[in-house]
Every structure is written in structure tokens, then in C-alpha cells.
Specification:
Elements (H helix, E strand, L loop, with lengths): L2 H30 L4 H29 L2 H17 L7 H14 L3 H15 L4 H26 L2 H19 L20 H6 L2 H15 L2 H13 L4 H25 L5 H21 L3 H8 L2 H19 L5 H30 L1 H26 L2
Keywords: Cell inner membrane, Cell membrane, Kinase, Membrane, Transferase, Transmembrane, Transmembrane helix, Transport
Subcellular location: Cell inner membrane
Membrane topology: Multi-pass membrane protein
Length: 383
């Protein structure tokens, strides 16, 4: 299979399962396993901590033991096996342990795939945006399938769709991986610094990582409270799923065109665009509590998430040695896509109780400093 098609297929398979687990698992725990919302939130919150620690420390270790291709196969199969234990589990303790284990294993597939994509960008000049758009497509299809299935079979369908998705991903990962992903990075000497330590010594990388953390973390209120916000402003539940999908559709369009549109853009200029788009997005929702304004703001997801993510990928593709890419992806997944979102979720929840709009305005307090940081550092670090 051509490397571009292999990457597209595996992005699709992973983000299909991501589109089931991320938005629906708390609801599945409460409806099918009988947990209270607070109990399910503790389980999912602990799972997010496990995800952060795992992608930060466990993932770089695994990349020194296995090639990226082999690692993705192992993670996909292990994720399916652990998910199957949910079928008989009914006690709080068992659900807690299974969720912790699953959250410790499964999310490592994301930095593994992103690392593989970056390596293939360097070795085969593949188009990252084109393949990543299939991931967004998989996420959208998952939302639609779960919505239709739960309307017929209730929340019980969520587990079986997740299991089928994981099985499909395990099959796709069993296909022969691209040759550049079949070899492990050259081992480091014992006296040499670790990849993480080496990256943290780079002021340019640390700056880019902090900007990414601020921009990705700013989505916390949208991810966690977007659904109930739409309910609070009177949107019928039937339309909420469609409205939330607007963001993913624009994300897909962006990734399809990203390689061409931003070919000559610097990383700092992309971050500026993302930061401005993100800040405008959250302020609009705060100022105008209207479904039409919310839909308009959804189009800015292509900037607030898509451009910010693409900028980070472009930076590590251009600036980092391949041996350091897995560690960089692990730090990004742990801090930018997990821990920052978790911490800002607590802040967003507190603000939401005061007034729903404040929860989104608070996210601008994360995105706007990213703009300032880029303006202060772009010339100094030339990124």
C-alpha cells in the first residue's frame, strides 16, 4: 500500500474511535453502568491524568523499545483487549481500573501516528494535511453513526461501536507499515541527554510548545460545555450534533488544503493566525449568546485548532532531528492535548456556573497570551 494511503487509512481508523470515546464515554458510564455524573467524572478525570502521564513518559520509552510501526500494532491490539473487559464490568472499582488502563494505553496511538506522519513527511514527502483530513472525516462519521445508533438501540450501542472501531483499527495496523516506520531510532549513548532533556534545552522548541499548550488548552470549554451551552440557549437536541459537526467539517476542509495554502507561511505566522482566530471565536460566543453566532464561531475551528496543530507539526518537521520527534509528540499530546485541557476544564466549569458566556471568555485568557508570546519571540527564535 502506498505510504500516503496507509497513513490516511490509519488516521481515519484512529479518529473514528476517538469520535466515539471522547464525546460519549461519560454518558455511556452513567446510562449503561448506572454511575452518577460525579462518579463518572472522577473516573474520566483520572483517565485524563493517566493519558497525560502516559504520553509524556511512557510513550517516549516505548519508542526506544519498538519501531513506530510495531508500536502502533501493539497499542491497537492492546486497546481492543482492554476495551472488551468493559462488557462484564459493573462495579465502580472495576470500571475505574479498566478506564485507567485504557486511558494509559489507547491515547499513545495519537503521538505514535503523528510521529509516523512527521517521519514520512521527512522521508517520503507525503502531504500531512491530506492524510490528517481523513482523521477528521473518521471523527465526523463516528458522531453520525453513534447518533443514529443510540436513537435506535440506546446508549448500549456506544460500547459495541467502539469495539468494532478498535477491531477495525487493529486490522489496519496489522497491514505492512511503511519501511521508514519499521526501524527503531539509533540508541543514545548512556552519557548523552535524553530526547526530552535535549528538547527542553531548546528555547525555540519550548516557546513553540508553550504556544501550542495555550492554544489547544483554550478549547476546554468548547469540548466540555459546548453541548450544554447549546441546550441552555434553547437549541433542540436533534440539531446540536449537526451544529457541533460544523467545526469538524471546516477542520476537514482546512487539512485538505493546508499543505498548499500554508506552504510559504512561517510557523510563527500560522500561530498568530490561530491565536487571533481563537480569541475572536471565544469573544464572539461570549458577546452574542445566539445559535447563529455559535455556528459562525464554529467555522473558526479551522484556525483555532487546525492551524495551531499544523503549525506545531510543521515546526518539528522542519527543525527537529527524527530521533527527537517521538519525545516532542509525547510532550505535545500530554501537555497541549491533555493536561492543559484538563486544568482549563476546571476553570471553565467554575466560570460556567457564574454565567455560561464567561466560560468561553475565560478561554480567550489562554489564547490571547499565545498571540503576545509569538509577537515577542518570533524574531528571536526565527520560527
Amino acid at each position: 500500500m502506498h505510504n500516503q494511503k496507509w497513513l490516511s487509512l490509519n488516521f481515519f481508523a484512529f479518529f473514528f474511535t476517538w469520535g466515539v470515546f471522547l464525546p460519549y464515554w461519560t454518558g455511556w458510564l452513567t446510562n449503561e453502568k448506572g454511575l452518577s455524573v460525579s462518579a463518572a467524572s472522577v473516573i474520566m478525570g483520572t483517565g485524563m491524568v493517566a493519558r497525560s502521564l502516559s504520553t509524556l513518559f511512557f510513550f517516549p520509552l516505548l519508542t526506544r523499545l519498538f519501531s513506530l510501526g510495531r508500536l502502533m500494532q501493539i497499542l491497537a491490539i492492546a486497546s481492543f483487549v482492554v476495551m472488551a473487559f468493559y462488557i462484564p464490568a459493573n462495579s465502580y472499582t472495576l470500571l475505574f481500573i479498566i478506564t485507567f488502563a485504557f486511558s494509559f494505553i489507547y491515547p499513545n496511538l495519537l503521538p505514535a501516528m503523528e510521529s509516523g506522519a512527521t517521519v514520512l513527511m521527512q522521508t517520503d514527502r507525503i502531504h500531512y494535511g491530506k492524510s490528517r483530513s481523513y482523521g477528521s472525516l473518521g471523527y465526523t462519521i463516528a458522531l453520525l453513526i453513534v447518533g443514529a445508533a443510540t436513537a435506535v438501540w440506546q446508549e448500549n450501542a456506544i460500547l459495541w461501536i467502539m469495539l468494532l472501531g478498535l477491531l477495525f483499527m487493529a486490522v489496519t495496523q496489522s497491514l505492512a507499515s511503511p519501511v521508514p516506520l519499521q526501524s527503531r531510532p539509533a540508541p543514545r549513548t548512556k552519557k548523552g541527554p535524553s530526547a526530552t532533556a535535549e528538547l527542553l534545552k531548546s528555547k525555540g522548541f519550548v516557546t513553540v510548545l508553550v504556544v501550542s499548550i495555550l492554544l489547544q488548552g483554550a478549547h476546554a470549554s468548547y469540548y466540555n460545555y459546548g453541548f450544554i451551552y447549546l441546550q441552555d440557549i434553547g437549541v433542540n437536541s436533534f440539531y446540536i450534533g449537526l451544529i457541533l459537526n460544523v467545526a469538524v467539517i471546516f477542520e476537514i476542509v482546512f487539512f485538505v488544503k493546508a499543505d498548499t495554502l500554508f506552504e510559504k507561511w512561517s510557523v510563527s505566522s500560522m500561530f498568530l493566525l490561530a491565536g487571533i482566530g481563537s480569541t475572536v471565536r471565544w469573544i464572539l460566543i461570549f458577546l452574542f449568546p445566539s445559535v447563529w453566532v455559535f455556528i459562525l464561531a464554529q467555522t473558526l475551528h479551522a484556525l483555532s485548532f487546525g492551524v495551531a496543530h499544523f503549525a506545531f507539526i510543521r515546526y518539528i518537521f522542519k527543525k527537529l532531528d527524527p530521533v527527537n520527534i517521538p519525545a516532542a509528540q509525547g510532550m505535545y499530546a500530554a501537555l497541549g492535548m491533555s493536561l492543559s485541557v484538563a486544568l482549563l476544564t476546571f476553570a471553565g466549569g467554575y466560570l460556567y456556573e457564574i454565567a455560561p458566556g464567561y466560560s468561553f471568555l475565560g478561554m480567550a485568557a489562554s489564547s490571547f497570551p499565545a498571540v503576545v508570546l509569538v509577537l515577542l519571540t518570533r524574531k528571536r527564535f526565527a520560527y
